[in-house]
């Protein structure tokens, strides 16, 4: 979720076939171009207890992620 409240979703590649319960792999390639570089983000990650882990991501990290996606094939 962006600071402006825009919700973007990425699927978990291990949702059904996780090697262990604490492993997840999310494909952010499709949503990365839609992320703002001037705002912070909140990542909501589901955990086995049914709750969500909330990770606060600064705009600096988001900018770096976008650089990686656009410059590395």
How is this structure best described in words?
By secondary structure, the protein is of the alpha+beta class. It is built from 1 helix and 2 strands. A two-stranded antiparallel sheet has the order 1-2. Strand 1 and strand 2 form a beta hairpin.
What is the fold's blueprint, element by element?
Elements: E1 41-46, E2 52-57, H1 59-71
Antiparallel strand pairs: 1-2
Strand content: 15-25%
Distance between the termini: 26 Å
Shape: globular
Q: Give the C-alpha Rg.
A: 13 Å
**What is the element string, with H for helices and E for strands?**
EEH
Note the main attributes of this structure.
73 residues; two-stranded antiparallel ribbon
Short synopsis of the structure:
This protein has one helix at residues 59-71, and strands at residues 41-46, 52-57.
